[in-house]
Amino acid sequence: MTWSCLIGAAALLPFAWREGLVRQTGLASPAAWAGLLFLGVLGTAVGFLWYYEGIRAIGPSRAAVFINFVPVSGVLFGWLILSETLTRTLLTGAALVVVGVFLTNRPNGRKSLET
Q: Are 25 and 37 within 8 A, CB to CB?
Protein backbone atom coordinates (compact mmCIF):
# COMPACT_ATOMS: atom_id res chain seq x y z
CA MET A 1 0.00 0.00 0.00
CA THR A 2 2.85 2.37 0.81
CA TRP A 3 4.44 1.77 -2.57
CA SER A 4 1.18 2.37 -4.43
CA CYS A 5 0.70 5.66 -2.55
CA LEU A 6 4.26 6.79 -3.30
CA ILE A 7 4.06 5.82 -6.97
CA GLY A 8 0.66 7.53 -7.28
CA ALA A 9 1.99 10.71 -5.67
CA ALA A 10 5.02 10.72 -7.98
CA ALA A 11 2.78 10.23 -11.03
CA LEU A 12 0.50 13.11 -10.02
CA LEU A 13 3.26 15.51 -8.97
CA PRO A 14 4.01 16.88 -12.48
CA PHE A 15 0.34 17.68 -13.04
CA ALA A 16 0.02 19.31 -9.61
CA TRP A 17 3.16 21.34 -10.27
CA ARG A 18 1.70 22.48 -13.60
CA GLU A 19 -1.52 23.55 -11.85
CA GLY A 20 0.40 25.78 -9.42
CA LEU A 21 1.12 23.52 -6.46
CA VAL A 22 3.71 25.85 -4.91
CA ARG A 23 1.61 29.00 -5.25
CA GLN A 24 -1.60 27.38 -4.00
CA THR A 25 0.18 25.69 -1.09
CA GLY A 26 1.22 29.10 0.19
CA LEU A 27 -2.34 30.39 -0.12
CA ALA A 28 -3.94 27.54 1.86
CA SER A 29 -5.80 28.63 4.98
CA PRO A 30 -5.27 27.09 8.42
CA ALA A 31 -8.65 25.39 8.01
CA ALA A 32 -7.47 23.79 4.75
CA TRP A 33 -4.28 22.55 6.44
CA ALA A 34 -6.34 21.19 9.34
CA GLY A 35 -8.59 19.37 6.86
CA LEU A 36 -5.60 17.85 5.09
CA LEU A 37 -4.08 16.79 8.38
CA PHE A 38 -7.38 15.22 9.46
CA LEU A 39 -7.73 13.31 6.19
CA GLY A 40 -4.11 12.21 6.18
CA VAL A 41 -3.89 11.08 9.80
CA LEU A 42 -7.39 9.89 10.69
CA GLY A 43 -8.93 9.16 7.32
CA THR A 44 -5.93 7.39 5.86
CA ALA A 45 -3.30 6.34 8.41
CA VAL A 46 -5.63 5.31 11.24
CA GLY A 47 -8.10 3.79 8.78
CA PHE A 48 -5.44 1.57 7.21
CA LEU A 49 -4.01 0.70 10.60
CA TRP A 50 -7.40 -0.53 11.81
CA TYR A 51 -8.01 -2.35 8.53
CA TYR A 52 -4.70 -4.22 8.83
CA GLU A 53 -5.49 -5.10 12.44
CA GLY A 54 -8.77 -6.52 11.18
CA ILE A 55 -6.88 -8.58 8.60
CA ARG A 56 -4.66 -9.94 11.36
CA ALA A 57 -7.68 -10.76 13.54
CA ILE A 58 -10.00 -12.46 11.01
CA GLY A 59 -7.76 -13.16 8.01
CA PRO A 60 -7.44 -11.49 4.63
CA SER A 61 -10.30 -13.29 2.89
CA ARG A 62 -12.91 -12.33 5.43
CA ALA A 63 -11.52 -8.82 6.03
CA ALA A 64 -11.43 -7.96 2.33
CA VAL A 65 -15.22 -8.05 2.20
CA PHE A 66 -15.40 -5.07 4.56
CA ILE A 67 -13.95 -2.78 1.88
CA ASN A 68 -17.51 -2.78 0.52
CA PHE A 69 -18.47 -0.50 3.41
CA VAL A 70 -16.40 2.39 1.98
CA PRO A 71 -19.11 3.71 -0.38
CA VAL A 72 -21.81 3.02 2.21
CA SER A 73 -19.99 5.08 4.84
CA GLY A 74 -19.35 7.80 2.23
CA VAL A 75 -23.08 8.06 1.51
CA LEU A 76 -23.90 7.97 5.23
CA PHE A 77 -21.44 10.75 6.09
CA GLY A 78 -22.62 12.76 3.08
CA TRP A 79 -26.12 12.59 4.50
CA LEU A 80 -25.04 13.35 8.08
CA ILE A 81 -22.49 16.09 7.40
CA LEU A 82 -23.46 17.58 4.03
CA SER A 83 -27.24 17.08 4.20
CA GLU A 84 -27.22 15.10 0.95
CA THR A 85 -30.39 13.31 -0.04
CA LEU A 86 -30.77 9.60 0.64
CA THR A 87 -32.69 7.96 -2.18
CA ARG A 88 -34.41 4.61 -2.15
CA THR A 89 -31.75 3.15 -4.46
CA LEU A 90 -28.93 4.29 -2.14
CA LEU A 91 -30.65 2.74 0.86
CA THR A 92 -31.33 -0.47 -1.08
CA GLY A 93 -27.68 -0.66 -2.15
CA ALA A 94 -26.50 -0.07 1.41
CA ALA A 95 -28.82 -2.79 2.69
CA LEU A 96 -27.51 -5.22 0.06
CA VAL A 97 -23.91 -4.46 1.07
CA VAL A 98 -24.72 -5.07 4.75
CA VAL A 99 -26.48 -8.35 3.96
CA GLY A 100 -23.64 -9.45 1.67
CA VAL A 101 -20.97 -8.75 4.28
CA PHE A 102 -23.05 -10.53 6.92
CA LEU A 103 -23.58 -13.60 4.74
CA THR A 104 -19.91 -13.74 3.81
CA ASN A 105 -18.68 -13.45 7.40
CA ARG A 106 -21.21 -15.53 9.29
CA PRO A 107 -19.64 -18.43 11.20
CA ASN A 108 -20.69 -21.19 8.80
CA GLY A 109 -21.06 -18.98 5.73
CA ARG A 110 -18.15 -20.46 3.81
CA LYS A 111 -19.15 -24.07 4.51
CA SER A 112 -22.68 -23.55 3.23
CA LEU A 113 -21.38 -21.80 0.11
CA GLU A 114 -18.86 -24.56 -0.65
CA THR A 115 -21.28 -27.50 -0.36
A: no
> Which is nearest to 100 in space by CA: 51, 54, 52, 67?
67
Domain boundaries, the chain: 59-115
Q: How far apart (Å, rounded) are the C-alpha atoms in residues 42 and 37?
A: 8
Residues 44 and 35 sit within 8 Å (Cβ to Cβ): no
Helix axes 69-82, 88-105, angle to 10 degrees: 140
Q: What is the DSSP letter of 83?
A: -
How far is C-alpha 21 from the geometric centre of its chain's CA atoms?
25
Q: What is the pLDDT of residues 15-59, one digit of tens each?
A: 999 999 888 888 999 999 999 899 888 888 888 888 889 899 988
pTM: 0.57
Question: What radius of gyration, in Å, describes the C-alpha atoms of the chain?
Answer: 19
